Amino acid sequence: MSSHAAPATIDHHHDPSTSTGIPNKKLLMWTFLASDCMFFAALISTHLIYRLHPPAGGLDPKVIFSPELTSFSTFILLMSSLMMALAVTAIQKGNVKSCRWSLLTTIFFGMIFLGCQVYEFDHFVHDKKMTLSNSMLGTTFYTLTGTHGCHVALGVLWLCLMYVRSFKVASDASWFGKQLLHTVTLLVALLLSLKVTLGLVHGLQVEPTIGAGIAHFFGHEFIYIALALVAYGALAFYFAKPAGPVQFNETNAIDVESMGLYWHFVDIVWIVIFTAVYLLEYL
Amino acid sequence: MELAKPAHLTHEEHAPTQPKLLTHPTAKTGLMGWLTTVDHKKIGFLYGFFALFFFLVGGFEALLIRTQLMVPNNDVLTAQQYNTMFTMHGTTMIFLAVMPLSSAFFNFIMPLQIGARDVAFPRLNAFSLWTFVAGAIILNIGWFGPIIEKIIGGNHNAPDAGWYGYSPLTSKTFSPGHSVDYWIMGLQLLGVASIAASLNFIVTIINMRAPGMTMMRLPVFTWMTLFTSFLIVLSFPFITIALVEVMMDRNFSTAFFEVSGGGMPILWQHLFWVFGHPEVYILILPAMGIISEILPTFSRKPLFGYPIVVFSGASIGFLGFAVWSHHMFTTGMGTVATAAFALATMAIAVPTGVKIFNWIGTLWGGHLMMRTPMMFALGFVWMFMVGGFSGVMHSAAPADAQQNDSYFVIAHFHYVLIGGSIFALLAGLHFWFPLMFGRKVSEFWGKLSFWVIFVGFNVTFFPMHFLGLNGMPRRTFTYDPNLGWNTANFIATIGSYVLGIGMAIYFIVIVYTYIKGEKVKKDYWDGRTLEWSLDNPVPEYNFRVIPTVHARDAWWYEKHHKEEVAKENAEHAKAEEAHGGIHMPFGSIWPFVASVGLLIVSIGVTMFSSTTTPGIGPKLGLSIVGGVVTLIGIYFWSLEGNEGYHIHLDKDGKVIDDGHHGKH
Asked: Is the pLDDT of residue B126 over 60?
């Protein structure tokens, strides 16, 4: 598909309309991230303070945490940052198609991270018996990592909106309805995928053999698998085929870049949390 | 000079077909005009309007407190009502009066001082305003407790745990009703509003300066706006998280601050004061900025030691983050921590003192014009110094251990907050009134209100120093007659009535002037900064031509280089017209919708108790509805795009095409 003819050259590192040359949106995002840093500073401090002054009879984090799973999801989140960076580069060069694929991959990796977190929370609550209110470790752990998880989820939502926006056709009078439907379909597809994947993991865990696990999985999740496939079909064969030239182009690079700053920040915060909450226990 | 056309302005040439919901509102007057406005001047006006309203509410609460304390064993208020009064008086004055009044000046004056046509994100600015209003509603909704109880049952009251909300006072055990919930959620909304507004101001000041307006040419008020905004974005997160933790303790039975579950109430004090101390500077730095504008104007001299004033402001802001524990000297932090915070507190007095000397240096040898704003400004310098002297006494930890929680502390912070912040804000209102409304307050009534306020203020608060040193504790609703506090308390109460009369004179005169005051021409005070180059009332687009700045006192320079500037402006006007005229942002209703959504969420989580039966109760239900409304607001906000329209002016500055007709 052809994108709208972009102006000949856009300097992505200098905006002549501002005093400093930094685009307003980028400066806003940097300042917001400085503020967001402080939110996490307060939460991480709370966790570390109660780590130093644990109430008597508290839980042992080493018994509860599973560093293998968390290392895996940390790695995935870092890779999502790579894809995010590729999306920014692509749109700066005016390559909408490549940008879309990188955005989708970033969403995919973000969803894997969220899936791991949902699994982890479920596992900790039901198997390890650590709840939000039965121990100080549970209180600070769920509050801190939950806040981070909300940041990731918000980032995924933003990525989805940006992805859908890249299909907006300028000349189409009914673009609003299509965009809304596209967004809803994408979000439904992602949530169903999350449910189905967790269902597969659950099936494999409760049944003795792999075959029985898969059978269990299909038995319980069949309707959701079918719905997810329908949603993906609609996304691939209907929504991803815009009726005319799209509006999204090189001038939107700043929008993708601001979103990228947020995404990278959320990743960096996770590295700090991974170190301060998980790795610290194994020193 | 060729002005490059920014990329975002090119969007409108191929504006897409918009669905009906996304058509831009064009009303400039009436209710819709106010609800959809993105004009920083109108937003500033609304901030000021609400701030002054809540200032009067907070003042009324203060008078009730003083009436109760007038004589020993008084029973005007019950102990419970007294708790409510001092809690709401403190919270209202800080978050609903002084901060938004400062914000009103940030909004109205700062963009004019840097030569900008609006703030960087006009719709975000509207969102900040309406979210502030939502927060104010939630904070005060408890006053209607008896009515709420009749409709939905439960225990509703105005917040009564102190403006500092010390744990465990805020726990379910000690505050089982909804009063603390209103306080928590109200502050959360005000935090969102303040952070959003501050992000906007920071980007505006750094990025939207007129050509030639280098950072070291910024007017000092703009500098202080920048520092205040940084303090807000860096300190508010701490109270937000602390409040989240209290909310979780109250709603999800966690134990962040519950001793029975291993929590430590002292953690609340640390988190609160890591926010709370920078907050003190959030209240005073804008005041210092206003004073730094008024003193030079009425001394007919440039500000003495401009770079020093700026850098001392920066170091106050920086050190402001390193002194929070001086509010906690009596909590047993240990000698090392106490000594460190005592030293940092002594250090922060240095840049503050430097500013005082700069202001005195500005006055020195000047041709002082004793007009009303100048009277308030001089009152500020003097009274703020008195408050500073008693403040630095607190840095000595052993002395503070005696003064802690006594009326000495009350005297101290009212000297810096009334004698400081309020005096400066009242001065600023008089100073910029001719610019905002094109009218001026009568000198006689203005000065009369100053003297009555000045006398009333000192008679109220000076005796409190002695009361404190004689051992009268804060936050007690009455006292025995044989403790030796009777006379001072009686004098203080009489003083507070005088202060109340002074404020009444001030506001009646302001309202009268707004309606019928003497009309004045542009640049009434013969000012130095760019806002005075504008006609009054300021046109919607602010500057006919974006000014080019050649000196620190930009307007002063223009007045003395008329020909050069006129030539330059004519050229720039031509260049701008060639680029399509004056660009204006469209109004929008969606920031208001998003704020209404937040209000609904807050009503849901504060007013209703959790239901034990499964399913969606009113608490969860309203939260979901509100969340959806907010989401809709933000979604449409982002979809309507940031286009604007263009205004074209003729040679005399008359609007010949307001962009709503013709091709657009």
From this structure: yes
- Mean of the per-residue pLDDT values of chain B: 92
Each residue of B323-378: pLDDT tens digit?
A: 999 999 999 999 999 999 999 999 999 999 999 999 999 999 999 999 999 999 99
What mean pLDDT value characterizes chain A? Answer: 92
Mind telling me how many Å the CA of B578 is from chain A's nearest CA? 16
Closest CA to B62 of B36, B82, B39, B34: B82
**Between β-strands B655-657 and B644-649, what pairing exists: parallel, antiparallel or unpaired?**
antiparallel
pLDDT tier, B660 (very low <50, low <70, confident <90, very high otherwise): low
CA–CA distance, A176 with B409 (Å, rounded to integer): 59
DSSP B94-148: IIIIIHHHHHHHHHHHHHHHTT-SS-S-HHHHHHHHHHHHHHHHHHHGGGGHHHH
Residue B3 is predicted with a pLDDT of: 42
Scan residues 37-96 of A and list those with Cβ closer than 8 Å to B.
Answer: 38-39, 41-43, 46, 49-50, 53-56, 58
Residues B493 and B411 sit within 8 Å (Cβ to Cβ): no
Q: Cβ(B274)–Cβ(A75) under 8 Å? A: no
Residue A179 touches chain B, beta carbons under 8 Å: yes
Structure tokens of A115?
Answer: 């899936």
Asked whether the beta carbons of B246 and B256 are under 8 A apart, the reply is yes
> Which pLDDT belongs to residue B18?
64
Distance CA B449, CA B9 (A): 49
What pTM was computed for the model?
0.94
The structure tokens 């920078």 sit at B278
For chain B, the domains span: 35-584
b/e burial code for range B213-234 (CB count within 10 A of at least 16 → b): beeebbbbbbbbbbbbbbbbbb
Instruction: Output the six-digit token pair for B66.
Output: 């003083």
Burial class (CB in 10 A: 0-12, 13-18, 19+), B617: middle
What number is the average pLDDT over the span A140-148?
Answer: 97
- Output the pLDDT for position B6: 44
| CATH entry, B35-584, from 1.20.210.10, 3.40.50.300, 3.40.50.10810, 3.30.1330.30 | 1.20.210.10
Nearest CB to B7: which of A10, A143, A179? A10
The mean pLDDT value for B194-213 works out to: 96
Q: Does B6 touch chain A (CB under 8 A)?
A: yes
CB spacing of A17 vs B6 below 8 angstroms = yes
Tokens of B281: 């500077």
Whether residue B10 is predicted with pLDDT greater than 60 in this model: the reply is no
Region of residue A115 (phi > 0: left; psi between -120 and 50: alpha; otherwise: beta) = alpha
Of the candidates A158, A100, A258, the one whose C-alpha atom is nearest the C-alpha of residue B635 is: A158
Q: Quote the pLDDT of residue B558.
A: 93
Q: Which helix (H) or strand (E) holds B519?
A: strand B518-519
Q: In whole angstroms, what is the distance from residue B194 CA to residue A212 CA?
A: 57
- Peptide bond before residue B168 is cis, with ω within 30 degrees of 0: yes
Residues of B whose CB is below 8 A from A18: 207-208
Which of B203, B239, B249 best tests the A interface by mutation, with the highest count of A CBs <10 A?
B203
The answer, for A6 touching chain B at a CB cutoff of 8 Å, is no
Candidates A179, A218, A176; CA nearest to A196 is: A218
Cβ pair A121, A200 in contact under 8 A: no
Instruction: Determine the length of chain A.
Output: 283
- Would you state the pLDDT for residue B659? 59
Question: Do residues B568 and B615 lie in contact, with contact meaning Cβ atoms separated by under 8 Å?
Answer: no
The C-alpha atoms of residue B418 and residue B456 are separated, in whole angstroms, by: 11
Distance CA B527, CA A22 (A): 32
Q: What six digits make up the tokens of A60?
A: 């042992």
Read off the pLDDT of residues A2-42 as tens digits, 9 standing for 90 and up: 444 444 567 888 888 899 999 999 999 999 999 999 999 99
